[in-house]
Amino acid sequence: MGQGWEDEITYEANLGLIFKKKIRISPAGIEWDGQLWTLDSITRIGFCMFRHSVNYIPVGTNYSVSFGTSSKSWLIDLCKKKIYLNFVECLWKAVGVRILNEYLNGLRNGQQYEFGSVVIKNDGIRFKKKLSEDIYLHWHELVMTNEGGGFTIMDKSQINSWGLKNYKEFTYIQDNVPVLAALFRTMGVEEDK
Question: Is 3.40.50 the CATH number for 113-191?
Fold first, then answer.
């Protein structure tokens, strides 16, 4: 990784109108509120734009980013869309791609990953059910939809049926859900538009 990558992941911005705080990402890590976390120590990321409305009238948008280590996480409102987009692009290149590759290598080596009631395995996913048998679906049996601040993964055979049973909704601000979405795309899961 040469100078090009270092430039691609370097960004800083001031947040706040009166009491400004600097957020910075670089090869040294993420710097926020006087603390620095190395890129390798960050094991969780999330990001999402939340649009707010009252009686269907838009009243604003939050541009939120989360990141965390194995023991603690932080949620930051980046205030402006431009800052959010620039920071997220750097965060993805600096940390997201690494975590995605760790997941792919782990799956290849027999590991599995849990995201709530969904267990990710090398050849598909298992929906853990409380009152009935678990459902296992291969990658080609799944479809995902993107809406607002998240996505839904579901059994392709149930898309047009009444009472969808095998599905899971995720929000992008949750730990590593942006990585999970990239993983599903890498595994060939179709996107229903």
Answer: no
CB 125 within 8 A of CB 140: no
Residue 166 identity (one-letter amino acid): N
**Strands 113-115, 118-121: pairing kind:** antiparallel
Digit-coded pLDDT (tens) for 85-144: 999 999 999 999 999 999 999 999 999 999 988 999 999 999 888 777 888 999 999 999
Over the stretch 4-56, which tens digit does the pLDDT of each residue have?
889 899 999 988 777 788 999 999 999 998 899 999 999 999 999 877 666 77
Q: Could you state, in order of their start, the residue ranges of all structural domains in the chain?
A: 3-108, 113-191
User: Do 113-191 and 3-108 have the same topology in CATH?
Assistant: yes
Angle separating helix axes 177-186 and 97-108, nearest 10 degrees:
60
Tell me the CA distances in angstroms from 183 to 18, 59, 123, 136, 186, one per residue in order. Answer: 40, 33, 12, 17, 5
CATH classification code of 3-108: 2.30.29
